[in-house]
Amino acid sequence: MRAVVRGRVQGVGFRFFAAAAARRLDLRGQVRNLPDRSGVEVVAEGERPALDDLVRALRQGPPLAEVESVNVAWCPATGGLPNFTIRAWG
After folding, report:
1. Are the CB atoms for 51 and 44 separated by under 8 Å?
2. Can you say whether the dihedral through the CA atoms of 24, 32, 9, 54 is positive or negative?
3. Which of 7, 46, 53, 88 is most exposed by smallest CB count within 10 Å?
4. Rounded Cα–Cα distance for residues 64 and 72 (Å)
5. What pLDDT score does 80 carry?
6. Can you spell out the DSSP letters for 46-61?
7. Which portions of the chain are predicted below pLDDT 50?
8. Residue 29: which of 86, 81, 73, 74 has the closest Cα?
9. Quick check: 33 and 10 in contact, CB under 8 A?
10. Sign of CA dihedral 77, 79, 85, 90
11. 2-79 CATH fold
12. For 9-29, what is each residue's pLDDT tens digit?
């Protein structure tokens, strides 16, 4: 699953929120700020119910976030993603 979250999602702890949610759900992948500062990208794989829970969490966001949209693309899992990590840029 690849999700791009837009709105007030940088500088509000969104990456840490997303990573904590993904780790609780036993998902693998990464979250990063988009280089153009237009949003946050989340790439995750795991069981579909857990991925659905993550998408719900992304739509909510942490307290200081203002999520305007979450665009989700479903892709086949590769099994090659690491334990869930946080990346800064690009």
Report:
1. yes
2. negative
3. 88
4. 22
5. 82
6. S-HHHHHHHHHHHHH-
7. none
8. 81
9. yes
10. negative
11. Alpha-Beta Plaits (3.30.70)
12. 999 999 999 999 999 999 999
Yes or no: say if 32 and 90 are a contact pair by the CB < 8 Å rule.
yes
Closest to 84 (Cα-Cα) out of 40, 23, 5, 1: 23
The stretches of the chain forming alpha helices (DSSP H) are 14-24, 48-60
Instruction: Specify the pairing of strand 40-45 against strand 85-87.
Output: unpaired
Query: Which residues are catalytically annotated?
Result: 15, 33
- Cα distance between residue 79 and residue 45, in whole Å: 8
Query: Alpha-carbon distance 2 to 44, whole Å?
Result: 7
Q: Indicate the pTM of the whole model.
A: 0.92
Report helix, strand and coil shares of the chain as percent, to nearest 5. Answer: 25, 35, 40
